[in-house]
Amino acid sequence: MHILDVIEKKKNNQPLTKEDIQFFIDGYVNDTIEDYQASALLMAIRINGLDFEETLALTNAMLHSGDIIDLSAIDGYKVDKHSTGGVGDKVTLIVAPIVAALGVKVAKLSGRGLGITGGTLDKLEAIDGVSIDLTEEQFLNQVNEIGFALAGQTQNLVPADKKLYALRDVTGTVDSLPLIASSIMSKKLASGADGMVLDVKYGSGAFCKTKEVATELAKIMIQIAEGSDKSIVTVLSSMDNPLGRAIGNKNEVKEAYDLLKNPDEADPNLLNTSIEVSAYMYEIATKKTHEEAKQAVLDVLHSGEPVKKFEEMVRAQRLNDSNEEIDLNFEPAYRVAVKAPKEAHGYIEKIDAQTIGQISLDLGAGRHTKADELDYFAGVELHKVKGDAVKPDDVVMELYASKPIDEAFAVRAQQAITYSEQPVDAIDAKSVLKS
Ligand code: URA
């Protein structure tokens, strides 16, 4: 078999066999297929799609490209969570410690930033000294001892996704339902958890632009999980506006930590999404009703225990002095304030997530090429969000970076905001699909 034949097939919109897909994954992981050939096949898939059989074959080939973690030695139900990607989406950093504080083990393989959406791994590495390269043994021990671990794909854990994910990020091949579904589900099936909650985002800052497309993606992932005896709940939530007030890396970690320390002062949409996702994770692990699970989440959140769990995770995943104090405050070298224009009277109707995600990426919080180094200080801080009252010259947001910020960024940021003279509902919609 030759990779060119596989590329030609998909270019001509013909179905790939299981063998074609296995050949591609094996060759790419073993470096006998080059990046440029893999990019061509990914683009053909992006354009012509994969049917369910092909998507399942791709998921399985990726899943078996490395080890599948066996968590059976750990007592009790193990739960996992994943987002399909959003702007300002730091929900994992909040829900994993909450659910662990409720006594349910969370075993999670995360991803890096993808396109304009941020990634938990990049955010974790923005914490001084923290590593996401856990061996299978470290991952297991940490889930056992602390109750949760957030790790990256490695040479042993889903290496196919590690390579393909980085390539898709810089080749315009992220927004493909079969590629998203196989990337997420290969990681979820490899992490060894018994059940999972998937947060499927739709809107301008998500890969699925409409709720209909997000529903289609949710159904594909549910169908993949059904063949594997894992419980799955998908929560569909809007990503037209960024989630929360921080978009970047260091600032998102700080917002997550602050929410755990002081939930009553958190952004309501971020708090709501975190409570809902945690409650579904707890519900599938304990079989409690959703209302009971939600109450348990609220109680534990106000007990302060999740903050301790978060700190235990940072200490466990820190390579240097693990007793060092955890201080997530930071000061970017450059800041630019973006103000409401003279004609802005009324309320913020929308802050376009796609534009803000792109600005954050361009400021240095994301990658344009595989080799790009992130500026962990870079990003956007929203001072006003959807539904807030606003008057001319109010500071709506600030842009952060370690390098001087061109004035053009502020102009682009201005254009992301729409105003309304009428009051605007601040809370975003959510719905749920279960297997
Ligand atoms: N998250 C992933 O892990 N993979 C994708 O392709 C998109 C979001």
Automatic annotation (TrEMBL):
Cross-referenced PROSITE patterns: THYMID_PHOSPHORYLASE
- Asked whether the UniProt record includes Transferase among its keywords, one would answer yes
In short, the EC number is: 2.4.2.2
Q: What class of enzyme is it?
A: transferase
Please write the reaction equations for the catalytic activity of this protein.
thymidine + phosphate = 2-deoxy-alpha-D-ribose 1-phosphate + thymine; 2'-deoxyuridine + phosphate = 2-deoxy-alpha-D-ribose 1-phosphate + uracil; uridine + phosphate = alpha-D-ribose 1-phosphate + uracil
Cofactor dependence is on: K(+)
Please provide, alphabetically and separated by semicolons, the GO molecular function terms listed in this UniProt record: thymidine phosphorylase activity
Q: Please state every residue range assigned to the domain named Pyrimidine nucleoside phosphorylase C-terminal.
A: 347-420
Q: What SUPFAM superfamilies does this protein's entry cite?
A: Nucleoside phosphorylase/phosphoribosyltransferase catalytic domain, Nucleoside phosphorylase/phosphoribosyltransferase N-terminal domain, Pyrimidine nucleoside phosphorylase C-terminal domain
UniProt keywords (A-Z) are: Glycosyltransferase, Transferase
Purpose of the protein: Catalyzes phosphorolysis of the pyrimidine nucleosides uridine, thymidine and 2'-deoxyuridine with the formation of the corresponding pyrimidine base and ribose-1-phosphate.
The subunit structure is: Homodimer.
Family from the record:
Belongs to the thymidine/pyrimidine-nucleoside phosphorylase family.
Q: What is this protein called?
A: Pyrimidine-nucleoside phosphorylase
Organism this protein belongs to: Kurthia gibsonii
